[in-house]
TrEMBL record:
Signal peptide: none annotated. GO terms for biological process: methylation. It comes from the Bacteria. Pfam families: Methyltransf_25 (PF13649). Keywords: Methyltransferase, Transferase. The keyword Ribonucleoprotein does not apply. The keyword Methyltransferase applies. Residues 90-183 form the Methyltransferase domain. This is Methyltransferase domain-containing protein.
Length: 266
C-alpha cells in the first residue's frame, strides 16, 4: 500500500516520469556488466538502444533475448491450438523494439509478419535492424493502415495497460476491424493479482468491475497504467468468444505476470 501511495503522490506532482527516468539509469548501471558479457557471447544478435528496451520491457539483454524468443514460440503455439490456416498474417500490436516479433518469422516461415507501435524511435530502429517484418508507425489514436479482415492472429502484450478507458473501446474496435472472422486475439492485462499495488479506493473500484486508470502522465508511456477486472474485460470483448483466461501469478523471480486472454472473433 505504501508503494501505491508514493506512486499517487508522484503522479499528482508530475514527478513520476522523472522518477522512472532515474530508475532507468540505476537499472542500466546495475545491468551493465551482465549486459556486456551477454552481448559478447551473442555478437550476431543486434540489441536495441538501452532506453528503448527499458521503455517496453526491462534492461536485461539476456531477458530481452530469451523471453522474447520464448514468448514468440508460446504465442504461436497458442494460436495454432485454434487456427490451422496456412500463409497466415500475424500482427504484433505495440511491438516496441521487436523483443517478440523478431522471432516470429522463423516460427511461421510461410507467413507474413507485421509490427506496429506508436514509438517513432522504436519503429525507426526496427526498420533498420530487423528483417522479414513489415513495421508501421501508428498514432495513439485507433487507426491502422491495414485492410478489413486482414490478420489471422494479433497479439498485444501490456498495451491496453497503457491506455485510457475511451481508447480501450476505440482500439478494441480497430483490432476487430483488421482481424479476420475466427481470427485469434491474444492479450496480456493487469488482472486480479495487481490489486496489491492499488490504493483502497482503487481496489473498491476494481472489485466493482470498473477499469482503474492511473494517469497524470503521457498516455501510452510505461508509467501510464490501467488495471483490468475480469468483468470489464468480458464486457469489452462481449462480441468475442473467450477461449482461455490465465490468471496473473508470481513468477520465479518474485514478480507478477499479467493475465493472458485468448479470444476468437465471432
Amino acid at each position: 500500500m505504501m508503494k501505491a501511495t508514493i506512486s499517487k503522490i508522484l503522479r499528482q506532482t508530475r514527478l513520476l516520469f522523472l522518477a522512472d527516468k532515474l530508475r532507468f539509469y540505476i537499472q542500466k548501471y546495475k545491468n551493465q556488466a551482465k549486459n556486456k558479457s551477454f552481448q559478447s557471447s551473442h555478437k550476431e544478435f543486434v540489441f536495441p538502444p538501452d532506453y528503448l528496451m527499458y521503455e517496453s520491457f526491462n534492461i536485461s539483454y539476456e531477458s530481452y533475448y530469451k523471453s522474447g524468443k520464448a514468448a514468440a514460440e508460446r504465442f504461436i503455439k497458442s494460436f495454432r491450438k485454434y487456427n490451422s490456416a496456412e500463409n497466415v498474417k500475424v500482427l504484433d500490436w505495440g511491438c516496441g523494439p521487436a523483443r517478440v516479433v523478431r522471432h516470429i518469422p522463423g516460427i511461421v516461415p510461410n507467413g507474413s509478419v507485421y509490427g506496429t507501435d506508436y514509438n517513432q524511435n522504436s519503429i525507426e530502429w526496427n526498420k533498420k535492424n530487423i528483417a522479414d517484418v513489415d513495421f508501421n508507425l501508428n498514432g495513439l489514436q485507433a487507426d491502422l493502415p491495414y485492410e478489413d479482415s486482414f490478420f489471422d492472429f494479433i497479439y498485444g502484450i501490456s498495451i491496453f495497460t497503457d491506455l485510457s478507458e475511451q481508447l480501450h473501446y476505440e482500439w478494441k474496435n480497430e483490432l476487430t476491424r483488421v482481424l479476420k472472422k475466427d481470427g485469434i486475439l491474444l492479450l496480456s492485462l493487469q488482472g486480479n493479482l495487481f490489486k496489491t499495488i492499488l490504493t483502497d479506493n482503487e481496489i473498491r473500484d476494481f472489485e466493482n468491475g470498473n477499469l482503474v486508470v492511473r494517469g497524470n502522465v503521457k498516455e501510452g508511456h510505461r508509467t501510464y497504467s490501467a488495471f483490468h477486472p475480469e468483468n470489464f474485460v468480458k464486457k469489452l470483448f462481449s462480441d468475442y468468444e473467450i477461449l482461455e483466461h490465465t490468471d496473473s501469478f508470481i513468477n520465479n523471480n518474485g514478480k507478477p505476470e499479467q493475465d493472458i486472454w485468448i479470444l476468437k472473433k465471432k
